[in-house]
Amino acid sequence: MFLERNPRFVSRLTRDTLAMILAGGRGGRLANLTDWRTKPAVPFGGKFRLIDFPLSNCINSGIRRIQVLTQYKAHSLIQHVQRGWGFLRGEFGEFVELVPAQQRLDRPLWYAGTADAVYQSLDIVKAHNPEYVLVLAGDHVYKMDYGPMIARHVESGADMTVGCVETPLEKARAFGVMSVDEHGQVLAFTEKPESPEPVPGDDATALVSMGIYVFNRDFLEQVLREDAENPASTRDFGRDVIPTAIHDARVVAHPFRDPQTDQQPYWRDVGTVDAFYEANQELIGSSPELDIYDENWPIWTYQAQLPPAKFTTGTVAGEQVPGMAVDSMVSGGDIINGAVVRHSLLFSQVVVEANSVVEDSVILPAVSVGRNCRIRNAVIDEGCRIPDDTVIGHYPEQDRRYYHVSPRGIVLVTAEMLGQDVNHVR
């Protein structure tokens, strides 16, 4: 490969690439977690937000021209990006640009779909004059060097390249499923099929899109203008643009593989409450598949300056009981006061008061748990104030009466469900 012969090949390509992160969706399958924030702004992993993963991948890949396209309830996302991603130097042509949805003169509509979001920003794309455009979803959790994918795009002579992973057949129904020939050219693409086509030789696995696309800029403009003129289009990359491009142009698949092990790395779509809970819980293990401690590929974010977590002795029935966390992750500003936290992930500024037990749970920032509470198998949303003696996750019928319970039995609790002010939720 030319890439192996010329190590500067990838750096030149990434320098000529503009990344566009689609961050306008609500993500309704996350239930009440996205009542007051867009899905890419949902907290993840103790200190991050989902948007931090594609942004960090871009920076670590050498892509420093980035647009974030926003729409639904974007205030917390905009605030986070402004606070945490303003370190790039404009005089060097580097930026993270926030692009809100803009009503057009011809039709006063918001983004009609993923393809329409990019189409409405074509004038901004042309102003930056990139050679290649990298389109990314803003709500997936993974670490990926985009350089090799862009290099494959150029070397293969593709008009469009689609990042893909192999996924169990029963889960593939939630994604765009593709079939490819022996050279990696995409032959067919079906968005969220009822019966996904398995990969040859493996009836239990399908090849699905990661929602990552590389385009030649001129081709992107052409295909989006044609899509905009098609009255039957739903303005979606998966449903409309990719199937059309397969017939009219060269579309190539790029398998997401570790170049050293040839194994498929970690990639998660945390699009449901169960998936969100499981992905956070996976981080607690001693050797999680997603290594957020990797200094060679850091995940950048904004984080408030907070004091260290504190474990204090609380009074229970007149006795002094130490606070403790076992097999758990805790964050800055947390106070565990005479309580027990087991196999749980606590975001910043969480307070758990005396004689309470939190087990197998994900507690988002600024939550306070009162005395004598019993919480397990739960996701507690940001800013909730759990009253003394509250029991969550122990009595399913009671949980369903007051909270959202996922198909797997995970209890999602928000401030609104507790009858509390939701204005503080970020």
What order do the helices and strands come in, and which of them pair?
Elements lengths: L1 H4 L2 H8 L1 E7 L19 E2 L3 E2 L2 H10 L3 E6 L4 H10 L10 E6 L13 H6 L2 H7 L3 E6 L2 E3 L3 H10 L4 E9 H4 L3 E5 L5 E6 L6 E2 L2 E15 H12 L8 H12 L2 E5 L11 E3 L3 H10 L27 E7 L2 E4 L1 E3 L8 E3 L2 E3 L2 E2 L4 E2 L4 E3 L2 E2 L4 E2 L4 E3 L1 E3 L4 E2 L4 E2 L3 H7 L1 E2 L5 E3 L13
Parallel strand pairs: 1-4, 1-6, 4-5, 8-13, 15-18, 17-19, 18-21, 19-22, 20-23, 21-24, 22-25, 23-26, 24-27, 25-28, 26-30
Antiparallel strand pairs: 2-3, 6-12, 7-14, 8-12, 9-10, 9-12, 11-12, 15-16, 29-30
Helix pairs in contact: 2-7
Q: Helix coverage percent of residues?
A: 10-25%
Beta fraction: 25-35%
Number of separate domains? 2
Low-pLDDT residue spans: none
Q: What is the mean predicted local confidence, pLDDT? A: 91
Report the CATH superfamily of the largest domain: Spore Coat Polysaccharide Biosynthesis Protein SpsA, Chain A
The main β sheet shows up as: 10 strands, mixed
How far apart, in Å, are the first and last alpha carbons? 47 Å
Please tell me the CATH architecture of the largest domain by its name. Alpha-Beta Complex
Structural class computed from helices and strand pairing = alpha/beta
Count of helical stretches: 12
CATH class of the largest domain: Alpha Beta
What fold name goes in the CATH topology slot of the largest domain? Spore Coat Polysaccharide Biosynthesis Protein SpsA, Chain A
Number of strands: 30
What is the general shape?
Answer: elongated
Radius of gyration: 23 Å
